[in-house]
Records
---
Amino acid sequence: MINKYKISLEKLKNYCDPDIFPYETTEDLKVDRELIGQDRAMEALKYGLSMKRKGYNIYVSGLSGTGKNSYSYIVAKDFANRKATPKDWCYVYNFDKPNNPIAISMEPGQGKRLKRLVKNSIRRIEEEIPKALSSKGYEDSKNNAFNANKKLASDVLEELNNFAAKDYNFMFKHSENGLLTIPLVDGKPMTDKDLDKLSDEEMEELANTSMELTQKSYDQIKEIKNIEEKLVAELEKLKEDAVSLAATEFIGPIQVEYRNNVDVNNFLQAMKKDIIKNYEMFLETEEANYMEKLLVRGDQKAYFLKRYSVNLFVDNSENKGAPIIREMNPNYYNLFGKFEYANELGVAKTDHTRIKAGSLHCANGGYIIIQARDILRNQYSWEALKRTLTMEKLKIENITGLSIAAETLDPEPIPLDIKVIVVGDYNTHHILYLYDEEFRKLFKIKADFDTEMEKTDKNILKIGNFVAYQCEVEKLLPFHKGAIASLIDLSSRISDEKNKLTSRFNELVEIIYEADGWARAEDKTIVDKEDIKKAVEKKRYRNNIYEERILEMIEDETLIIDTYGEKVGEINGLSVIDLGQYSFGRPTKITANTYFGKDGIINIEKEVDQSGSIHDKGVLILTGYLGERHAQDIQLSLSASITFEQSYDGIDGDSASSTELYVLLSSLAELPIKQGIAVTGSVNQKGKIQPIGGVNEKIEGFFRVCKVKGFKGGEGVIIPIQNVDNLMLADEVVKAVEDGVFSIYAISTIDQGIEILTGVKAGSRDENGDFEKDTVNRAVQDKLNIYAEINEESLND
């Protein structure tokens, strides 16, 4: 009766035929790093990268190991190589508004050249200005101007003195404060002694005469002052001309070279004017004493000359194509740049040369890849990134105040042209999409990397190419086609479906590396399938200590698991324990007691707060099943308790709901269950079996328990029929089934399962609505009828 539910041998594992590969080893294979099985993600990624509209940034989602990071970079790199190299950016001093440095762009490589040319020109100007102002030509011109104006002034003064002596008996004399009137005695200037001998009246008379003379001589005195001012202006003009000539000699060629760049020329012109205006700073050659240097906060001249320096902010001279940057630590300053400060006498000083670029500046014109979990941990970074993408401008500013007095700058923002790729998981994208309105506007493209792909011949061959690529890049031994076939089998096992392959290539890469290591340890020249098998077994051995301890406790009956005999109200359920790198199946004894009452089915785990909501739902479904199947015309008067024995942790999930129903039916029907058969599967209220996860681990887990306890005959596992496609069992389990010592059953209904477990027919209703005699369902119905009669009698009493 039960043999019809047994799964045939060929369905237990879908082996890959090594002959599918048209070569013996990967040495004979073309190397290819093509991404496999991610056509949907690649299409989305490429579409997003090709869109030049605002808001078409990309969120790449997927589990780790699917290649979402590496292939996002590879695809973006391919786009970057086809784009033009973006311009260099420099920050220069703003001579009109010193706190607002000016941003200048230029062709790649020109920024570095401009910085060098300006630096050299300032150094040469610094040398030439003192020479120009001490040259013979300059001195001759200065003397000529001085002599010509001196003669003019002397002629006017002589005329003035003749007038003063003749009419007022006075003369005029130059002093630091201008022209002074001096009284004469016998044609000679009066001395201080002569003045002391005069009476007050005489002194007052001299003062009045001097005032009258000054008033009468106003035009001549003004003419002399004009001549003096003219001399000063001419001398200043001579200096400016000399300085301008020196500056033009070295700045002019730069202006010619950058004649097509208006911003550069405006800066150079403003710089030349400032040099002429502040030429004295180029003449300070004597060292200041210590106190003077302290008071001016260091070398004033060097600090002053910094204004002429060019800050090469973004240098693309070495780039070929657009930049692509992986920002691994996206804090605010790493992304958006910062001001560097120098502490001078307790004041944090900065200038345009201390403005440092962030990764967004360096990636401007290209692409930047950021991990979602990293940037979301930096609140300032995430908000600033959205604001920057919205405004399409990069602005540098401090986000926190400094603890000391500090200078501040407000540099000119730089236009932003960038494609941002944020890499994260599905849940993060879902939360951002629901609750962050700006995210929806700015990240319109989602590239979702799948965890599995179809097991087609094309994809199988591509995995062979992938192995060949790893061998070449990592200098591994060549892999035999049998080894690659074993990797394909492992890939299907990881994907948990025989007709699928995993897209989480990092797990395959681990085995590839380790198989190479074991092959080398045995001095092999080729990696074969035995090396793959050993790598898998050794990896399992490194991680399965917990599983072995459980098996030891089952073997010495510390954990009570029966694998032979029959018992009423007892059954072996199956669960999966996930330890991260390793997961395994563990059987658990489930028991049930049934008796008259009105409490319904009591979930003992729930009563002690060890049951999750999904498990609670599964238990409640049992009542629905019993009500529909057995209580259409009677009142369900039942109390039952179900528990997972020797379970001290929380329980969740519904994969044991069918198991709990079987043990409940066994208790009601008083029919024993075969302890050598474990069960997994969910059930609905209609008695239909539903698929579960971890079917391979569960089967192998119970198989190992039976192996430890010793095979007595009849051992096996019942699974949902839908899970047959998930079977990729270990070779030893397949061999045991082939030898007839272990069986795997696939069912679709509770009736089928109970027949396998009890060896008794489930039974169906006849034309009168009664279940067949000597069946499980009839026994259950009879017991529930008895409980209903007892309940009715108690109500009548």
Note: The first helix runs from residue 39 to 50.
---
Amino acid sequence: MENKCVKNIVRFNPKNNFGLTRDEVKKRIKENLVNVDKTNATKSNKEIIFGNLFTLFNFINFILAIAILCVGSYRNLLFMGVVVCNCVIGIAQEIRAKITVERLNLISSNNAKVIRDGKKGKIKIDKLVLDDIIFYESGNQIVSDAIVTEGKCEVNESLLTGESDLILKKPGDMLLSGSYVVSGKCTAKVEHVGESNYASTLLKGSKYIKKTKSEIMFTLDKIIKIISVAILPLGAMLFYRQLLASNYDWGSAVVNTSAALTGMIPEGLVLLTSTVLAVGVLRLSKYKVLVQDLYCLETLARVDTLCLDKTGTITEGTFEVCDIIEKNGFEKSDIKSALNLLTSALNDNNETFKALKKAFSYSKNDVNVVKIVPFSSERKWSGASFKDKGSFIIGAAEFIFGNSSNSVVESVKKYSKDYRVLTLACSDYEFGANDNLPNSLQLMGFILIKDKIRNNAERTLKFFKNQGVDIKVISGDNPVTVSKIAERVKLDNFDKYVDATTLKTDKDIEFAAKNYTVFGRVTPDQKQKLIKFLKQNGHTVAMVGDGVNDVLAMKEADCSVSMASGSEIARNISHLVLLNSDFASMPRAVAEGRRAINNIQRSSSLYITKTIYSFLLSLIFMLISVPYPFIPIQMTLISAITIGIPSFILALEPNRERISGNLFKNIIKKSVPAALTVICMLMVCVGMYEFFNISQYKYSLFTVFLTSFVGIMLIYNISLPLNKLRKSIICFVSVLLLIGITKFRYLLELEPLTFINFAIILFMMLVSYLLYRQFLRINFEKYLKIFFKKSNSK
């Protein structure tokens, strides 16, 4: 690894027993070669608040609110409540994301043991400088990349690489920051500091706030952008026309123009979306699923490719003993007795030994141990000598018997295709000097162990298969081993595996992403590229992982899922955290995402209908000198009763349908017939106002009633097939609307609902019903292809 920060810097070579001098440390500090990671890709809280408050969307609403305040029409300001809620939600979500990113840190240790000027002591890790002499022993975390100068130690790098095996580090070997010393002691010289450390470079690609891939967000942004571009010139021209229509009554012109412009902005849809997704978050929390990003529920519901790290998802990350194979006349009882003695005597703490200990164990009081030789990655075996019982050794056959015993090695190969094979040997002699193996070793048998598969892993993978989701298993382990595990859970194409060490170029990785299912020996950088190429090929990708080696891939994925039992940093950057570390919770998360998205899509039609007819009405009333048919408080009534209440209730219904089609297109197809019906009926009202000289209050009564009725017809249409709840919503909305129009007519500036007015309204309602049915028969999709061209390309 190249150390960019020390290029062209003179290196010191301090002695292990003296370290750097005070002057050398000062020189390093002056050169800024200190172990401080200054990477920060987030905005300040002030920038976040500023960015959410001062948007074109809010600017338009604030201008309208100020205009209404200036003419004293305070009751028409109710629309600002939704605007404020949207701002608060946006600020809260962005600040929360900022906090999450800023706490990403792989190094948990605070202090380091160093020697300077011949004196040993502890210093804060951010005081370490390049070329410092540092001491490590069992249990220490490597806080800065360093080269071993003296001693030996075994290091666990699984947090970084995904490889579970311990690695022996000798003089000249590199210690990677973020790994842990499991056994032994060593002295090392700091090789990299700050941003050049392996841990920092690994996390550098994840320290940014990534926008969630959300079709809902894209649709809302698209609508708001279209409206924002048109609303200022449209508003100015409409205001001028309303000024003429009201004989230069500035108050009426402001109120009417505000009603038109606020009707065009679907601000309630933003609030609905956030609320529905928040309810989904609460529901999932009951099933031990923590949602850290609201919109990830939508992304997960749309996922067509799911990438898994084997450990923690398909397997539990532990082993289990499957069988015992006897050799040389020994019986299973002999082998079990030997294993009972070993597991009671030894204190090995690796996953393999834990599996043995779970299957075999005596009480320590029953064991009379003479000598113990613990496991090491260099020896690849461990053993113990017992009084009057001889010695027993367990480990890798080639390290116990050497390559000279071809028959033993060949026997191991016979089973190693399907199992991890441990060899058990015995001797009547004790261990020699320097913990050498005893003489006259005799093979007792083999212990076959396997990765422990999660109980419901097969069922969960079958669920995703039935949903049309392609599964990719990406692991740092041996590809053959991973393939065998995939076969055990009946994963399709388990035999299509590749060793990632053979993938030398990006083209190789891209080819592998398209053609293989199982990937072994994958580095963190390769994992990220695999996800990237899958996305480039048009897939929506989710990544499930639990280690630091998964972080880059998880950050690249459209949706990331981590296990609570995994690393803290993986939990911090993931969209979803499975609190019970159970992969079987995933189907519930997918189902909840589908419920939310399908229901939001259905309810969105109500909001977009208002946007369409408000936009078209504004264009029409720019050309005619007739008062706009609504004032803001009337639009508030229509929005609350025919849009707000039903949309929130319908959006919380159960819905397990698979998501299909383009969200924007699905919404528009349902909205256009209702919007055109409103336009046609309001033009009838304009004709009555112009040619029959009806009053402004009667004009408003007819327009409010007819617009609300079309809204109820739309509710009926999107609620099919009807159930008790949906029927109740339609009845409740109808009654509430009638009460609002009759009881609050003074507040709404409406004429009383007399018998004649009611008869006229009933006739026009019949006409609007027939007109709506005709519009529903028209295939608007072919007329909207140009409009949707860009949307489909996304």
Note: The first strand starts at residue 111 and ends at 116.
---
Amino acid sequence: MTTETPQPIHLSDYKPVPYLIDRVDLDVRLDPRETEVRSRLSMRPNPASAEGGAALVLDGERIQLRSLVLDGVALQPGQYHVEKEKATIPNVPQAPFTLEIVTTCNPAANTELSGLYVSGGVFCTQCEAEGFRRITYFCDRPDVMARYTVRIEADREQAPVLLSNGNPREAGAIGGTTRHYAVWDDPFPKPSYLFALVAGDLGAVHDTFTTMSGREVALGIYVLKGNEDRCAWAMESLKESMRWDERRFGREYDLEVFNIVAVPDFNMGAMENKGLNVFNDKYILANPETATDADYVNIESIIAHEYFHNWTGNRITCRDWFQLCLKEGLTVFRDQEFTSDLRSRAMKRINDVKLLRARQFPEDNGPLAHPPRPGSYIEINNFYTPTVYEKGAEICRMMLTLTGEQAFRKAMDLYFARHDGEAATVEQFVRCMAEVSGRDLTQFVTWYTQAGTPRVTAEGHYDAAKKQYTLALEQHVKPTPGQDQKQPLHIPLGIGLIGPDGADMPLDLAGVGALNTPLIEMTEPRQTFRFGNVTARPVLSLNRGFSAPIMLEASLSTADELFLMGHDGDSFNRWEAGQRLGRKLALDAYHGTAAAADITAYAGALRKIIDDPAVDDAFKALMLVLPSESEIAAAIGSDVDTDRVHAARDGLRTAIARQLAEDLGAIWQRTGETGPYRPDPASTARRSLRQTALALMVMGDRAQGIARALAEFEPAHNMSAETGALSALVQIDCPEREAALDRFHARHGHEHLLVDKWLLLNAQAQGPNAAARIARLTEHPDFRWTTPNKVYALLSGFAGGNPAGFNAADGSGYRVIAGAILKLDSINPQVASRLATAFRSCNLLNSSRKSAARAELDRILAAPLLSRGVFEIVSKMAGS
């Protein structure tokens, strides 16, 4: 916290560190209130640095320095100085030297959950991005990579389990005391953000995995005692991840052990520390009575993501934090491919795009827009964003599309071989792709450096006499903060021309000939593509598979969209046609121009899909969900009245539900549970369709829908059915909803993860006085400001999942969230900063709402001692 205006850090100012650290020997003597850390650093001048003879500057926060010893000689106060968040030694040898540091810290008082802290009685660390400096003084940046040996000492009864990175080397009792120790050695160099330590009275589940070269790896999942029986799915997901990475990318695990620890207090989802992943326990613990289908899928995906970081993030890390998308975007892409191979590739693609549009498109369209590789930041924790993660993954996917699967795999092999053990950059990664594929990717790199979502307009014209189809494309990216001038992007566009019979027509592109791969590439602001031998008027299917993260405006009629809904052979574009048409109908309803005939035609197209036994249940469920209120608001673009958006969407859903009443009833009859719960793709798809149908039935016939929801809720034998029924009820303001929510809490109030679900359901409850409900629940004994999951469930769940409540005309939603941000900023600034992003789209709203939101942003900025993170987020939004 500071009263000074925080200053940005710029990519252009990057310099190699003056001193390298080859080896770190840590001795950590754990105590809840005064942990002592003895650090021995083997250092040398960096030959790549231009700052020969420079002072040694070490980072440190929230720790007390006890002593410094340089090459065996204790330094006196005049030989170093400590100020703000740095310790400086003006004179160090210009040859290899050893620095010994003793510091202390207070884990029990660490509510920011960065560095060393205590969660559920367990000592735990979180060092990404800059938490290691809260443990000891260090050159805390990702391009300083060292080998670590760690000795942990703790009370044997309080912490019988002592874990760190690497392989276990030694353990034993400390004679004459109640304490014991363990020594861990990590043979691979790593940056400080990957350091991890866990100590506590933990239960464990163990297994083994045999690698493709025949080595046996010991696997362990450590949890709070009593939760061991909820780790089976996580363990199987881990082993499946290890098998997949060997099969798909040839990557074998490299240590003797792989451990996971799950704790209830964690700022993020999980952390990929080398050999010792630390997880938010919501992404480990699962059984049918406590976890939903979505939980099972998330556990599978997030375990894979963190495991895949072993190569894309750990063995090869990022040179500086501006390169964060190099490790995160690439690893998100890898975990998306993992899920696609295990489950349905088509459904995974649609769900990934839904997430991108819900989280990243609004970021690109507002004051928080930034390139996947930003040029500056004030607080690096603010850049763990959808742009870095999800858009970063889309960039990797476009490279796969442009280079082809075989070349992409070879380029990945080259990347691993060339940069193993290094801190790499985006340019080095792209260079591997270009070298192997022979493609010039110079223009493509602009995707990494330019903010904003490209808008591509498509105009098609068919000349029957010439049997020629002409496609005119134009791309445009609107100005974003700090980037008024935009460059054209290299955009790969999957394409199909669908004939009257519903089949794809051959693609004969002028100047190229027959396209073996149905792909065109846009590199100019305007381009025209002409296709010959087109024997009948086609319907355009463009950006198939969402081949590029763009907003597409195609000149398609309602009849064309209905045709695509029924015939497009690309599952994504079939769904996309339904989304475009649903969005048009919602906009018509918002503007009061909706036509009953159009709604009937749309409902008829949906009926054909949901009544078709050949169509996957998961696809049917996705087709029945209209674009969100936030997407509709973004399509309106300005002066948005969120109450009218909510009414328009609900009105359209009600009309569709009534026209599909018989079909929804038939779905309900055939999708009931017939045996034990299984989280396999087919069962998950069936339940998804059932819950989607129930949500519509509640809208179409309230009395019957409520009765069915309660009938599903009361005897529910699994959490998916139970929360699915409640989710249908929270859409409407009725006494039955309140009674069911109370019943859920009475059943599950003893289980912290289910309390989170209860808070989230309350946050999403529609109706007047939604903000008052949230304010009241912050006083509930089961809500804790110091637990991020509780904050995310209730407050982020409200701001992001209840647009009508958050954007209430009286400003009450803004007030409750702004008040929460101010309270959280002194407890956990990272969580406060994430919550503050809820205001990112307020510039789309009408003047009264915009003014109310701006007043709350000004109130936050006026607060004394604001953290860097909250200042950075709020000042950008308030100044836009």
Note: The two ends are 24 Å apart (CA to CA).
---
Amino acid sequence: MILTRAWLSEWINLQDITSEDICSTLNTIGLEVDSLKKIRVPKNIVVGKILTCEKHPNADKLNVCEVDLGSETKQIVCGAKNVIKGQHVVVSKVGAILPSGMEIKKAKLRGVDSNGMICSSSELGLPIMGDGIMILDDSIGTLVLGREFSEYELINDDIVEIELTPNRGDCLSIYGVARDLSVPYDLDLKEFNSKDDDKQLGIGRVLNVSANDKVDSSLLYRVYDKKEMKSSLLIDFRLAIVEAYKPTSLQRVIEYAVYTTGTLLRAYSHTSFESQNNKATINIKKHNNGLNAVYNQNDEVISFVGVLQNEESKVKEEDMMVILEANYTHPEIISVNSTDKKLNFDSHLYRSSRGSEPNLDFGMSYLIELLKKYSDITLYAKDQQVSQDNDDVIISINLDILTDIIGEKIKQDKIIQILKRLGFKVVFKGEQSVMHVIVPPYRHDIVNIQDICEEIIRIIGIDNITSKPTIFTEQYQMNDSYHNFQKCKMYRHRAVGVGYFETVHFVFDHQKRAKKYGLKTVYKTRNLTNPITNELDTLRSSLIPNLLESVSKNIKFGKKSIKLFEVGTVFNQNREERKDIAFVFSGEVESHKVSNHGKPKEVDFFKFAESISKVVGSFELETYTNKNNLTSPYECARVILNGSDIGYISRVHLGVEKELNLYRTYICELSMNALSYERKEAKFYSKFPESVRDLSLMVSKNIIFSELKKYLYSIAPKELVKLYPIDIYEDESFDKCISLTLKFHFQSDEKTLEDKEIIDIIGKILKSLKKKFGITVR
């Protein structure tokens, strides 16, 4: 944001304050100054008036001018195309030294004497303002012939460039910066007044504006008839300084009003909306891209509010009736609906997405006054508006809490004074210790007590807050955060011990990719408003996609066996977060060595599950129907720990393996909260030997093993301490059954079990199985 001292002085009295002090104050209040540059026109350069202008007798492109310099008249040869009789110009007299170092001397050009030079803005070290010489007018002050040009303060100005953070759209204007600057200096802003002529024709004769109830922008329209359109030297000069110079006079006046007030302003040709009886009809509706759009009577989009205006609707030289528009849309609406829509846009989007000035009357009135001052127009009375009644943002603040956050007690009167000068309203209801702050509509970035504290501190100055020594006090550290940290640390160390490498990724994900994999993403209403990139445009709902990308990159680097894990935050559709741990194993089980003859096997489901169990402990697997496109429908299971479903384990879908050029790859994602983290306790164990028996049973294919296991434990005596499957065998002669081999572990706490006792236990188990499921011994 570029501003000048004289421009700021139109809104705040800076007469007794140096430019250096202004820069220091801007830095203090958080508007970081990038540079300070002072424009000073050299001496012996004065104001002149061209009395005569004749063609050079010996050169087609030169003119011979008689120039009145107040106390004398000089003949000067000039080659500028725009030089004519009667103009006030800037003249470098003989002996003047220009900023480029060139000294002006008497010269003879094509046989004609020339005593000085009529200057362009660039020759004076000023920014370029069109082609040709610099033509003066009284916008910079009274033009006195022969007066040193260095005495005109509006030209010999100090330029300050500041860096603004994206949330400070309220300071993207001269008025906005002046408003902030008035607070530390305790100065009043200068009032701006305007008045319409009551004798004007009403706007209703030439314009009709309508909007449907879905529109969430505010708009204000005025209309004028043009007789002559002009800008001014001061407007052109300042726009050139801030690098916003426009090709036409109307565009420059509008841009100047936008830059001064912060209000978004546009001008339309009346013919773009014209229908019958020379009356224009403007319809404002919600476009299917989510933006508010301005339509003409043929239902054609003329502009997107705060984003873009069609070239065809812009005012041309021959247009005699012009429609002016001021508009405001909340920056969040603009940001959400313009991101990743591949829309064209103009300079308005930069301002509207950061927050423009919502006081449309102010911006429009300022523009009208400029037009009336420098141009010849006939304005139609009154305006037509589409306005939105937005609720006030009210923040209730306990003054004691405010003091704790700031670290020092600030006088209540001082706090109120700061907030009111910044445009906030302060109300006390009942309790005098609770302050209700009403946030001004141009400060959309203020949402909580911390933001209010920041406003107070930046005005007071962080250096003016008394420093206090740090006090170290011992606190009880055994809280939930500590236990969660230790839990994650334990499982991370276990995973590393099993051979997995830890990875860390952003909590963001690519929404398009997540949907392709069939993952549930955050609801649109709760999604990111301003993603850092188009590829990281939502919050991740799974750790697996990023892990697979890392596996793919490792394979491209020539790795044959990749074991990765990550502990991180994921989000459900309501943007509620939880912590998961995810594993991926791709490629070969082990490295090339003599024992495997240099040909290690690829990882399989059971090898992967075994490695996971070494990290999280013993678990059970149950049938799982995959609900996304990442998992294979044939090798997929739910992970059951202590009777609870804590996640899944699966092979990656073949389609994904091919897409990412992966080896055979297995994945597992578990809820970190569901993993155990309990105090280690010593437990009794039997000193008597364990007896093991294998039983091959004929089991129906329809029986689920988890149900069978649960039943066996329910009927078996306490001597059965463990059982698990070790083999499955199928044969055509088995019909609808399979041969399932189970290993039974028996052990008593009181004695060594004899064979007869074990046989009796097995007999009872087999009898119960046959009665319940029809299971027999093979």
Note: The longest strand covers residues 217-228.
